[in-house]
Design goal:
It is a single-pass type II membrane protein. May be involved in cell wall biosynthesis. It is found in: Golgi apparatus, Golgi stack membrane. The protein is of the alpha/beta class. It has 17 helices and 16 strands. The protein has a 6-stranded mixed sheet, with helices on both faces. Helix 17 links the parallel strand 10 and strand 11. Helix 1 crosses helix 2, helix 6 packs across helix 17 and helix 12 crosses helix 17. It is globular, with a radius of gyration of 27 Å.
């Protein structure tokens, strides 16, 4: 019987030649990612693991951890489980009972095709840890406020640095730039800037916004600035050219006269005011320059006033480019993700939103949102100021522009003027139209068109009641309700300047049909509407100064994904 065959053994020479090669390969796979992760401005190793699909879960020992709710669910679609945390965008460490909209609002929309990047998810969790450590009510916050109160200069970099957003001047007095959309868009931009610069984001919450939103960050520390104990008084009086404004510091050559890297933090003021409102001028435009961001990074407290969606300008700053690409591989999802992370209606407001949806919208699969801004509330193109009051003829022309748009683009069917809608049945309607308009007469007129006449294709159309028409709601609450209801629509038609429309479209992840303003001294626009190629809001008043060329230039030609807006002359917008 032949003995079993023994496999040949490797010779010592072969062993000695193979093990160095194996060791070299192992070192490459372990040290190169580590070197990349530890490089300045690059994601950490934790982030790289997430990019490669390796899930790492962190648990915080926090009393705000969600507990099972005993309240009945008002979810509109209980038949299939949904990812209410939006792909990790939201932290689970906030109890559902304290903020129902956080867990339920996304169920009123189709699932978003835009998933947050693993790096953005990682940065948000890190920010939440920073807010726990440095937010109001913590020892580090109290220490920072004491230093701010006692120091004329910054005293060097502190462990915690802060960005405070304060609302546009003249809140509550009818100023055009003070509607809720003109606040939420700069708040989202400011939060993104805080993420990029590792600052704690605080809001100088105006009284007319009190109680509208849930706290967005887990933990006991609020996002609201405790104004009573804050050493910088009269924040509402900060203006362009104020003593501590960054533009004024440049103009008086207190900064900007030497290499940014050589500027000593100890010689900078204890705080700087950033004026990024619609009336800002060239010195303030340098906020978007790389060297000036290096200087601002050495100031512990930044106070920012803005009524603009200035996030596209952050993409123009070279030191932010890499990280923004990691956060938003598709740049036109920036507000979609930041807005859904930051803004959650309070339980009081959510009750109104959910009630309206259940009563009027839930039974329709095809929902069209139309946001109508009359000519008197449309900005004059190019100068950032309200247009002259429109005549009735201009209002009539604008309504005709809206109806021509929805019919020409097959959003709504034509009506037969000779056929009465005698068999109208709201329960059988196949399309629902939600109209958000400052003038309710325009919504009622559209309702009467489809109520009184049959459509040429036999399709039924229901124009829903305007939210808040039946009851008295505070102005900003009514606007917030309309924003979220618009975000539950499948198709959107909006004024090209409308910040209310921007918020609704961005939350929904919908590319709207935009109604451009008519040319000056004319009452109608041609074409009647254009399809947006990006769901991002428009930066209405971008800087004119090209930091890279060090002269005025076309910033819409610097980066391929920052281009001119479709319906706002001179505006900038993020594209994919």
């Amino acid at each position: 019987m032949r003995p079993p065959r023994v496999p040949p053994q490797p010779q010592p020479a072969a062993r000695s030649a193979a093990w160095p090669v194996g060791l070299l390969v192992a070192l490459c796979f372990t040290t190169l990612p580590l070197f990349h992760a530890l490089s300045p401005g690059r994601p950490t190793l934790f982030d790289l693991w997430q990019q490669m699909g390796i899930r790492v879960t962190l648990h915080y020992d926090d009393e705000t951890k969600p507990k099972p709710s005993s309240e009945p669910s008002d979810s509109p679609s209980p038949e299939s489980p949904r990812d209410v945390l939006l792909g990790g965008l939201l932290s689970p460490d906030i109890a559902e009972s304290t903020c129902r909209s956080r867990y339920l609002s996304s169920l009123y929309r189709p699932p978003s095709p835009h998933s947050p990047s693993p790096y953005l998810v990682s940065r948000l969790r890190k920010y939440e840890a920073l807010h726990r450590r440095c937010g109001p009510g913590t020892p580090l916050y109290d220490k920072s406020v004491r230093q701010l109160a006692s120091a004329h200069h910054s005293m060097g970099l502190a462990e915690c640095r802060y960005l405070v957003w304060t609302p546009p001047a003249g809140s509550g007095n009818g100023n055009h730039h003070n509607n809720l959309g003109d606040r939420l868009l700069p708040m989202a931009s400011a939060f993104l800037y805080a993420l990029l610069t590792r600052r704690v984001f605080l809001v100088d919450m105006p009284k007319d916004m009190a109680g509208l939103f849930c706290e967005p960050f887990p933990g006991a520390s609020s996002w609201e600035l405790p104004v009573a104990g804050f050493p910088v008084k009269n924040l509402t009086r900060l203006r362009r050219g104020s003593e501590h404004s960054y533009g004024n510091l440049i103009g008086e050559k207190k900064v900007g006269g030497e290499e940014p890297a050589a500027v000593r933090a100890e010689l900078l003021p204890a705080y700087a005011y950033l004026h990024l409102a619609h009336d800002y001028q060239l010195p303030d435009h340098r906020f978007f320059c790389d060297g000036d961001q290096t200087v601002l990074g050495k100031v512990n407290w930044l106070l920012l006033r803005s009524d603009l969606y200035f996030a596209p300008g952050l993409f123009l700053v070279p030191q932010f480019e890499d990280e923004l690409r990691w956060m938003f591989p598709a740049p036109d999802t920036a507000f979609h993700h930041v807005g859904r992370y930051l803004f959650h209606p309070s339980n009081k407001v959510w009750k109104v939103i959910a009630g309206y949806h259940a009563s009027y919208m839930a039974r329709f699969d095809d929902r069209i949102g139309i946001q109508i801004a009359t000519p008197t509330t449309t900005l004059a193109a190019g100068n950032g100021s309200p247009a002259a009051p429109g005549l009735p003829a201009a209002e009539e022309a604008y309504f005709e522009q809206v109806t021509a748009c929805v019919r020409q683009q097959n959003i709504l069917p034509e009506v037969d003027p000779d056929a009465a809608s005698t068999d109208y049945d709201a329960a059988a309607a196949s399309k629902a139209v939600l109209v958000s308009a400052a003038r309710p007469e325009l919504a009622e007129r559209l309702r009467s068109v489809y109520y009184e006449h049959a459509t040429v294709n036999g399709e039924s159309v229901t124009v829903l009641p305007q939210p808040g028409a039946a009851g008295k709601q505070p102005g900003n609450q009514k606007v917030l309700v309309e924003m979220f209801l618009l975000s539950y629509c499948n198709v959107s038609v909006a004024n090209g300047w409308s910040t209310v429309g921007y918020v609704g479209n961005g939350l929904a992840g919908v590319k709207p049909w935009l109604l451009p303003p008519p040319p000056r001294n004319q009452t109608s626009a041609s074409p009647h509407c254009v399809r947006a190629t990006s769901m991002e809001p428009c930066f209405h008043a971008p800087p004119s100064y090209d930091c890279r060329a060090k002269k005025s230039g076309d910033l819409g030609a610097v980066l391929r994904y920052v281009r001119r807006c479709e319906a706002v002359d001179g505006g900038l917008k993020l594209f994919d």
